[in-house]
Amino acid sequence: MKKNLKAVLVLVLAFAMVFTMAACGSKGGEKKAEEPAEQGKVLNIWCWNDEFQTRFNDYYPEVKEVAKDGSTTTLNDGTTVNWIVEPNEGNNYQTKLDEALLKQADAAADDKIDLFLVEADYARKYTNSEATMNIADLDGVLDATSDQYEYTKEVVSDADGNVKGVSWQACPGLIAYRRSIAKDVLGTDDPAEVQKALADWDTFEDTAEKMKAKGYKMLSGYDDTFRPFYNNDKAPFVEDGKTVNIDKNIMDWVKMTKEYTEKGYNNKTSLWGEDWNKDQGKDSKVFCIPACTWEIDFTLTGNADPDGTKDPEKSAWGDYAVCVGPVSWCWGGTWLTAATGTDNTELVADIMTKMTTDPDILKKIAEEKGDFVNNKAVIDDLAKNYEGNSFLGGQNHYALLSDSAAGLSLKIASAYDQGIIETMQASMKDYFDGNADLDKAKANFETAIKEKYPELETVNWPED
Question: Per CATH, which fold does 5-169+332-388 belong to?
């Protein structure tokens, strides 16, 4: 069932106000110090995949054991961590989370949401509501974030500048490319030299033609370059709560993708599809894919080496490298937010602090998982001393990205981004396939977006 976002947010605000009023009425300054709230023994964490769950189980020092089915984690003090995993596709995660948040005020203590994860594409939907706690109200968390990249705080700050989430990762974007194909077509796989062949979008297209001439595809699919274009938009998709503004960069992506499709520079796949996944494997003829840091670790490595052998003879392990490409960009990431009403504020604060600010833990995550962790000092150290990523043929990708991450921004993020982006990509597919002209594709987008978000009354397209 499709939900009106505005109605959901009003209800979320309503339930949160109940919590706020109850909290204010039940504790004063001195009484709070004398009678700290009793902490719960069940911690409920909502997420859409096992990325954070895996890192938590592997690196949080208080973990005692993990259930065989992975659904729960037991901590040293006996606390049970329940993992509620709802897939992200089609706004499913948000829909289920919204339904649970509406029940938060009346839920039993052991059923309340304590932590829930958000992505940049919709973080502000929650951080601009009372459903999330200000991290300044969680003991020691805000002070511990001084070495985090500023954009990771910016995207989870509310309208008053209060930071309401933390992340263990920053997510600068890269171009991941096949070393073997680079050698065949460009005569070298050296990242500095390949960067020259991908330095801007005009050069990128020249290289795409060279790839085609030798029987390769530059890209796999339609959506591969969307994020580099989107992340360089000048303004949010939605600023006034009723109008969708399509930036010229988005239409530049549409134009380029249509041309690449007609010229045979891509394989006509769609993001996350089976053919798209296969195009990252050993037998693929696709040269490159724009990929952010989490995507390299969480998606590309699995597609390149589906059997987990790490054997270059059996997979594409070691046959990838990265360079910056035509533009600087980033894609999302995962933030931890504390749910208003949690009875585990002390544990939530400890998890946030250790998992997103502890240098020793973050360095291990970086070295063992390949994450670009959210700590400037750790990244600076890795940029100088990291021995190299075996998946990337021994390349030190931290050295490549340490400066880039410092300048990232997500000021263009809005609460509607996930739905708008997915709808844009889906609506343009018929145009790329030749089954609709551009005007029809635009009309389809307008119809779909108004069905998804009825409060969005108008779509403004840039002038040609």
Answer: D-Maltodextrin-Binding Protein; domain 2 (3.40.190)
